[in-house]
Amino acid sequence: MIYLKSPAELARMREAGRIVAAILAELRQRVKPGITTAELDKIAEELMRRYRATSSAKGYRGPDRNMPPYPGSICTSVNEELVHGVPGPRRLEEGDIVSLDVAVVYKGWHADAAITVPVGKVSPKVLDLLDATEKALYVGIEHMRPGNRTGDVSAAIQRHVESRGYNVSREYTSHGIGRQMHEEPQIPNYGQPGRGPLLRPGMTVALEPMVSMGHWETRVLPDQWTVVMADGQFAAHFEHTVAVTPDGPVILTLP
Ligand code: MF3
Ligand code: CO
Fold first, then answer.
1. Which of 91, 183, 184, 231 has the most CB atoms at less than 10 Å from its CB?
2. Does the pLDDT value for residue 212 go beyond 90?
3. Gap from CA of 189 to ligand 1 centroid (Å)
4. In this predicted structure, what is the pLDDT of residue 218?
5. 177-193: average pLDDT
């Protein structure tokens, strides 16, 4: 069941999205060599409180009922960690990259966005990975138009990522979002044009290409949340919550 949102509901999701964007902007500033991911989590938690929002992630139970509830307020995934990195005592070092994934619920509506940020000076190769992943997100967003199908979005993302020499995750997908953080449809970040559900005005999707320098295969750390690349190569992740409207895509997670 895909829930279509009215313009009034989209306006409420936009409010949640503005809060996510503000938190990401602050966190980006705070990323420096020496800061721990737990400190970033605490900053995010305080900002959520200030904006009267709550974390969609904290206490979240994954699809697998045996997983522990997610312990952080945000996800912080460093270097070869792809997504769902659990904040902790790890200190960021010059040359690292960190994906900051922030999802909040505000007045009953969720918004979800992520950026991957370099820590100090990082290699040109790694900067290219970040650039390719962020561009893939925007290429995908461009295809979020009424009349297209989810497969058009998936294929556009995959095409961009592979044209840059990288690989897109086969195991984790983009997703519908609204009253719940994860709603239908699930949208793989790879696939074939013309396939999948039709995009209609009022659909809202958290589009999130997850891209690796090496093979796409992952494993999960013993904390049961942190997803790492099996080959240990760096990975990047960018995400926006986007609405399909008659006038084209509208990004809800902008300042
Ligand atoms: N953007 C992430 C996702 O959709 C947010 C996950 S929060 C977590 O998977 F609690 F599941 F980690
Ligand atoms: Co998401």
1. 183
2. yes
3. 16
4. 98
5. 98
